[in-house]
Amino acid sequence: MPQDLIHDPKGGMPRLLEIMRRLRDPNTGCPWDIEQDFATIAPYTIEEAYEVADAIQREDWAELKGELGDLLFQSVFHAQMAAEKGLFTFDDVANGMSDKMVARHPHVFGDESRDKSAEQQTADWEKIKAAERAGKEQQGTLDGVAVNLPALTRAVKLQKRAARVGFDWPDSSLVIDKIVEEARELEEASDSLTEEAVKEEFGDLLFVVANLARHLKVDPEEALRAANAKFTRRFEGIEAKLAAIGKSPAQSNLEEMDALWDAVKLEEKVEK
To answer: Which domains does the chain have, with CATH numbers?
Structure first.
């Protein structure tokens, strides 16, 4: 019985799907869940993905279990809305992913040899994905790169696609030269450009920085998250040192806080 399944602590995936169906029931479900659609749920899906990444970065494995559940629930929510519209079901989603993974790993599930380097497997993966895009009538080199990806991530993906057809700087030193050039141009022209033009030039600079990350094999989103965490940690160290002498940042000045910043940095180096 569905009611028994809902309260079964070991009901697994069928239990979760039944809970979602009940939440969306137009007669007995939750008013908030019933009102939602793909567009309103999408931001929550993105947020949950970031929370998964955050738990991994902090190595909080107990929290990761919960965050993965939250992310899974987002897939279940979208699939339930799709089923209601007659588009597809959760089983279709799962079967489609299974088919894709089998097709993309002929060296595991087929008769191809597993005796390949990681680079060769990556190249083969990209060939298979290119064939899939061709089947979807995505003929352009940049077709299929999701528009709503985080901007730095999308920049790297666009640049990777362009690099496959030879549109790329041959080494990172040329990228660094371009960054210096773009930064100098932005600084020199910022007083004479319109606000929109400054935004465009700054975007160009960030795009080249993302390209440098790709050349250095660095995930720019991950690197920036780490930089944010480092800044947060060090600024909290400044606040702690000020609090120890009965002051707050608002009662301090840049010179004092800069000296405390250096002290926090030094302490971190000693601890390492």
So the answer is: 2-103 (1.10.287.1080), 113-139 (no CATH), 140-218 (1.10.287.1080), 222-271 (no CATH)
